[in-house]
Amino acid sequence: MRDTLTDDVPTSIVRSSRHFDQGSGEPAHMKQTISPGTGEPNRAIYSLGAAVTRFRPAARWLDEGERAAIELVAPDVRGQSILDIGVGGGRTVSLLTLLSSDYRAIDYSPTLVEACRNSFPNRDIEVGDARDLSRFDDGAFALVVFAFGGLDSVSHNDRQIVLREIHRVLAPGGYFVYSTLNRDGPHFDDRPWRGLRRTRFNVAALKQVARWAAMYGSTMRDHVKGWVKWWPMRGDVEDHGSWAHGPLTGPGLGLVVHWATLIGTAEEIETAGLSLVALFDDQGRRLEPTDTTVTPMFHVVAQR
Ligand SMILES: C[S@@+](CC[C@H](N)C(=O)[O-])C[C@H]1O[C@@H](n2cnc3c(N)ncnc32)[C@H](O)[C@@H]1O
């Protein structure tokens, strides 16, 4: 039965991710740079039919950090315009429309957009790439959200393009809330045997994995398949210290993603002309850019 995202990832897509850093001797991140349009591995993976099963509209907070980030901005954005980028299957639709009915969503996966529209036929949900928000006016939104590591699907260079676009479409004082994979967290450059060792000692990490698995319906079978997809890509890590490119481990779908440290995140926010308001770990604890944290993913509140 083809019921998971990893079931449907063609080998050719996985291989093209794998070879992103081979060839002419240019810096690897230049070669991995992905442009808007078709034919790019992460977008192709998110456009597979099984993505719909994976990113169904669970209408639950990802974790306490996501809840804390949205609760922080809620009083300022209630009733105002919201843009939800990378809406996927629609997990965030019900959550964000509690704040405002002036809600628009985009995702670059036509498959996920179709599924999301079917679940929320009365909502404005369109195919669109975060790297090109030209359909939206300057200063159009009080809140832009890019949840659950969606921003990590684009390369380091394209990330700045996305952040500048978001800066442009935010109203002065508007907020950008997103989550990003932690370069210093347990899943960066991971190996299955490290995970096994870690879970013996780290009950919190085990609980978090179980929560995500319950929310997104992954099973032990998915995990094994995910690791099988990941194995040939395991060495394709390009690490710059404050940020990195590398394969998403575990049932990671064959994606090659971006990883950032807290400091790297503070820097990229500033480079894009935004101000850092707050950082939260997965438990909803406030973090400082200079902290060291092993949270798998952290949540960022930035302001124009
Ligand atoms: C991990 S899923 C999260 C889905 C949903 N936001 C959630 O929290 O459940 C990331 C989503 O971001 C979308 N995405 C990634 N890069 C994108 C881009 N450049 N433009 C628009 N959507 C993008 C993917 O298609 C996918 O639906």
Question: Can you offer a commentary on this structure?
Answer:
With 304 residues, the protein is α/β, with parallel strands linked by helices. The protein is built from 12 helices and 11 strands. Helix 7 (110-119) links the parallel strand 2 and strand 3. It starts with 10 loop residues before the first helix and ends with a strand.
Task: Please render the helix and strand layout as text.
Elements: H1 11-18, H2 28-32, H3 41-46, H4 50-54, H5 64-77, E1 82-85, H6 91-96, E2 103-107, H7 110-119, E3 124-127, E4 141-146, H8 156-169, E5 170-181, H9 192-201, H10 203-216, H11 220-230, E6 238-239, E7 243-247, E8 256-260, H12 262-271, E9 275-280, E10 286-287, E11 297-303
Parallel strand pairs: 1-2, 1-4, 2-3, 4-5
Antiparallel strand pairs: 5-11, 6-7, 7-8, 9-10, 9-11
Helix pairs in contact: 9-10
This protein binds S-adenosylmethionine.
**Oligomeric state of shown chains:** single chain
Query: How many domains in all?
Result: 1
Give the % helix: 25-40%
Order of helices and strands: HHHHHEHEHEEHEHHHEEEHEEE
Beta-strand portion reads 15-25%
Q: Determine the mean pLDDT.
A: 82
Q: Nearest-angstrom radius of gyration? A: 18 Å
Output the CATH topology: Rossmann fold
Number of helices: 12
Distance between the first and last residues' Cα? 47 Å
Query: Which parts are unreliable, with pLDDT below 50 for 5 consecutive residues or more?
Result: 1-39
Provide a quick synopsis of the model:
With 304 residues, this protein is of the alpha/beta class. The chain has a single domain, classed as 3-Layer(aba) Sandwich (Rossmann fold), CATH 3.40.50. The protein is built from 12 helices and 11 strands.
